[in-house]
Every structure is written in structure tokens, then in C-alpha cells.
Design a protein that fits this description.
By secondary structure, the chain is α+β, with helices and mostly antiparallel strands. The chain folds into two domains: 245 residues, 3-Layer(aba) Sandwich (Aminopeptidase); 62 residues, Barwin-like endoglucanases (Beta Barrel). The chain has ten helices and 15 strands.
Length: 336
Amino acid sequence: MLLVRSARSADHAAFTALAASTGAGFTSLAVTPDALAEKLVKSEKSFAGDFPDRSDAAYQLMLEDTDTGTVLGTAAVKAAVGIKKPYFDFKIMTFAQSSTEAKRRFDMEAMMLVNDFAGCTEVGSLFVSDAARGRGAGRLMAQSRYLLMGADRSRFGERVVAELRGVVDEKGDSVFFNHVTRPFFRMTFDEADRMSAATDNQFILDLMPTHPIYLDHLPPGVREVMGKTHPHGVNAKKLLEWEGYEYHRYVDIFDGGPLMDCAINRIRTLSQSRVLKIGAADGDPVEAMVSTDRMDDFRLTRCRVQLGAQTVQLDDDARRVLDLNDGDTARIWVNS
């Protein structure tokens, strides 16, 4: 059985192995083993409620095969980005150009460095190993983040943002980075990627221009990839759109990948979920995601359940992996 659970410091070896297999462009995990260990400690403190300021909190989730104990994937939720560490991206804007004397009127597009998502919750760092593919693991991990938010809405922002990986070639090179960002940074994509993950991003503010970058000055090949996701991220984008996310012309400053956002109360998984008590029920069996609906020792799995008006009946395996008993509260999302 696949179980999504809160991460622990003991997951460090598995977390390091997952990070090493992500490849170029996976900024959030492009850090040292020591930094990954710090993420796990921070996550434990976040789940325990040790951060009064939600901008300090980040929740790391692990996907475990309960039959083997193997960790097969990970995902994260940052409670409030862009406050203590700027959350920079490019906003593509349209400027009207007009001259009566020249008898010309046309629009030009340009992008500017912004921190417009300050205070929003971010979902990201979703990665599953090859061993988990074909089992619905990616979708399970993705939706688990929204049921986590439902466990305590006060810990999260009013909007949720997701950053999708942009287009990079088989060598890990980004045509967007090479033509837009590299001239200002004078470093490689990998160096900038790692520095962004490991620092407070002051170097971006120091080196990136504050003036607009006009898209007409960029080669067609660069403009074509802006706002486009990596082929491996197409399904992730479709799932975000299914949840209610929209693209509002924000792109990542490194690879030009799209940023999408949604009001938290419009996210489909969360808005369609129900809170029920564990107990006897006589409804027809249905496929559902079931979470413990508590931040402390958060757990979630997918299983067959029977629903009543106020109760949900689980089989013994689901009760065991979720550590739920009669009378306990669970949050349910029924597959639809």
C-alpha cells in the first residue's frame, strides 16, 4: 500500500537518493546532503507547530511503500513564500506603443522581475522514483498536499502557487537561461540553480535588471519556450489545471517555465473533501483518498471505503497504515 506521510529526519538517506536522481532544473532539491537534512528538521518543526510565523514553515512529505518500507517519492508545501526570502519571477506585461506623427499604434511585450506571490503558499518539489510510476503515485502525492492544507487552514495562505519546470535539453541546458539570465549572472545554469536553492536570493536582486526586458529583442527560440513546461511536466500541468490553477503570464527566471496559481478555497481536491468519523457505514464501496486530518503525524492513503452520513468505514489495512480507530476524524476525497 502507498502511504503519504510527514517526513522524518530518519528519511535523510532516502531523501538524498531521491534528490540525486531528479536531474537538472529541479531547483528545490539541487542542494547538498546537509541542506536536505536541514529541510527534514525544519519540516518536523513545522508539523509540530514550532514556527509562530508561518513564513518559516515548510512541510515535507514522503511517499512510502508500506509493504517494503521503501521511500519512493517526495513533495513539499511552503506555507508562505516571498516574505523573508524573495520569491522572484518574471511577469510578462503588454505595453501600448503609439505615435500620432508616425501613424503607428502597436503593442509590445516585456517582462519585469517581480515578487508578486509574497505571502502565498507554494506547492512543489514533487518527485517520484521510477519504481513508483504507473501506480498513481504522482497524483496521490499532488493531491495529498491539499488535504494537508485542510487539516489546518490557518497555517496556509489565501492563494497557492506552483512553479513548473521549464524547457531544458537532454544536457540540462536552458535556451531561456542562456539568452535572458546568464548575461546578468555570468554563471552556468547549474551554478545559478544551486545558489538559488541554497541562499536568500540576494544575488538575484543584486544582479538582475530592474528595467523591462523586451521580448522582441530575444531570439524566436527563446520566446517559444517562455511559459512552456518541460515534457516531463505536461501531466503535472494538466493536474494543476484540473485542480483550478491558472497561468497568468508569470515565468521562472531561470528556465522560463510557467507559474500557476489558484485561490485555496477553489482547489478542487480540498473543496470537495469531507470530514467524517471512523466507524461503521453501509454505503457502496468507492475509491477514496483518506487522510488523518491532523498536522501531527499526518498520513494519507488511497483505498476502498464505505461512506455513511457522518461516518466512513475503512478496512483493516487502511486503519493500520493511517493509525485510525473508531471515533477518530478523517478527511475524505472520493475519486470522481
